Fold:
Amino acid sequence: MLAAIEALRRFSFATAALRLVLAMLSGGVVGYGRTKKARSAGLRTYMLISIGAAMAVLLTQFQYEMLNGPWAAVTDEVGLKFDASRMASSVITGIGFLGAGIIIKVAHQQVNGLTTSTGLFATVIMGLAAGAGFYEGVIVSMLLIVVVLNVMSPLEIAFKRRLRNITLNVEFASVEDIGAITEAIEAEGAKVYDIDVERTERKDDKYPSAIFILQLSRDNHSHSGMLTSVAELACVRSVQELIS
Structure:
C-alpha cells in the first residue's frame, strides 16, 4: 500500500493526470454544496479553482524535472536558480484578489461573501496539495471543508440564536416611534447599545426603519420572545433578526 502511494508521488504523465482529476473531483464535492445554496461561487467555480491550483504545482514540478534533465546544460551555463515555492505563492496571492471581489456589503450593515471567499482560499490550498501529490491531505481537507460549509452552517445559526447579543431591523410608522420601541426593549430587561436609522420617511412601500443592536438580559434571553414583544407594538410594521 505504502509502495503504491510512493509510486503515485513520482512525477509522470499518469500521476499528473491523476492529480488533476483528484483536484477537479475534490473541488466539485466542495462546490456542489455551494451550488445547492445558490451561492455566487458554485460547482464549476470551485472545480476550476482547484484544477488551476493543482496545475500551478504540476508546472513547478515540470520545470524542476526539465531543469535537472533536458535543460540541465543550459541551466549550468547561465546559472539559473529554481524556486519551487514561487508559483504556489503567486496562486495564493491571486486568490486573495478573487476572494476580495466576492465580499460585498449589502443592506442592514451586513456583509456577504466571507464564507465563499474563505472557502475558495481553502479549495486553492487543497488544489495545491493535489498537484503536489499529497493525496491524504486532499481527502481529509475535502471532507473537513464540506463539513464546515454544509454541516456547521445550521449549527452556527442555532448557536447565534442562543447568544444574548441580537440585532434587529425594525420598520415603524414614524421616526418618533423609536423612543417607544426602545422603551419596550428595555422593559424586557435588554440593553440597547446602538441605534442606526436607515430611513427617516416612508418611500413607496417601505416604512422608516432602524437597526437596533442590543443585549438580552440573563433571565430573559429568548430571541423569539424579543421579536414577539417588538412586533406586538402598534407602531411597528415589521421586525427581523439579522444574522450574519
